[in-house]
Amino acid sequence: MNDTERTCREEEAEAKGKCSTMTIRYYRHPDDLALIRQLFVEATTQGRGSPIVEGMSSYAPHSRLAFAAAALGITLTALAPSRRISGASRIAPTTVSHLGMFLCLASIVLWIYVCYHRRRIGRAFDVFLDEGLKGELGDVVKSFDLRIMPGGRCVPTGPSAFWVAEEKGEIIGIVGLNKNINPDPGVAEVRRLAVSSNHRGKRVAERLMDAVLDHARMHELRALEFTTSDYNTSARRFYTRMGYEIIKTKDWEGLSLTMMRQELDQDCWQ
């Protein structure tokens, strides 16, 4: 990327900043550490669009079906001996009673199925949060190869970097780019993208990813990759819209993970 193109990008970023109180900046250490860890947990577990809420909600239809089966089963079992049922139907009361008991049993089995899978999702995300907090977000400076400058501002020393989105002094989004995961020297992985549940729908993620993309092109990376769970449908839709494509899936802690990749336009290096 030449100096003219960089200047144009800087002017474009500055123009965006004038239209919004949100700014994208590098991570500051240690001032931001506790705040980004808190945001990571909150964005993962709370609000519409969070992966754990989407995962739990995916079994809502099964829960409703279980409750409906239980209600109908109890009703049939209770009313089977009554004359109203026997008079209004040619079905024997014992048959109605057996049908009611079957529905009750089916609702119990279905509810056990829902509880098992929701507990499995909860355990998997507990591991995800624990790994994130003890790993990259436990030592952001080391994990993302940052140099601490006077005042705590952390600048990249290479392709890896870490950004925060800030609005009126509040950190509302985070994202990292980690070059140390993929052995391919031309590929880096987008990590820990998270947006506060109170600020979703404000293009926070897009602004963060613009910073990632500009940085990746400046360091002449060929591709970016991102991994998410199948339950994080919002993230998959977002990355698909950003130009990422699914390249493979794998199992992790009982969940199916989807790896997505975006090939970068190498003409932008010139």
From TrEMBL:
<protein>
    <recommendedName>
        <fullName>N-acetyltransferase domain-containing protein</fullName>
    </recommendedName>
</protein>
<dbReference type="GO" id="GO:0008080">
    <property type="term" value="F:N-acetyltransferase activity"/>
</dbReference>
<dbReference type="InterPro" id="IPR050769">
    <property type="entry name" value="NAT_camello-type"/>
</dbReference>
<keyword id="KW-0812">Transmembrane</keyword>
<keyword id="KW-0808">Transferase</keyword>
<feature type="domain" description="N-acetyltransferase">
    <location>
        <begin position="116"/>
        <end position="265"/>
    </location>
</feature>
<feature type="transmembrane region" description="Helical">
    <location>
        <begin position="95"/>
        <end position="116"/>
    </location>
</feature>
<feature type="transmembrane region" description="Helical">
    <location>
        <begin position="65"/>
        <end position="83"/>
    </location>
</feature>
<keyword id="KW-0472">Membrane</keyword>
<dbReference type="InterPro" id="IPR000182">
    <property type="entry name" value="GNAT_dom"/>
</dbReference>
<dbReference type="Pfam" id="PF00583">
    <property type="entry name" value="Acetyltransf_1"/>
</dbReference>
<dbReference type="InterPro" id="IPR016181">
    <property type="entry name" value="Acyl_CoA_acyltransferase"/>
</dbReference>
<keyword id="KW-1133">Transmembrane helix</keyword>
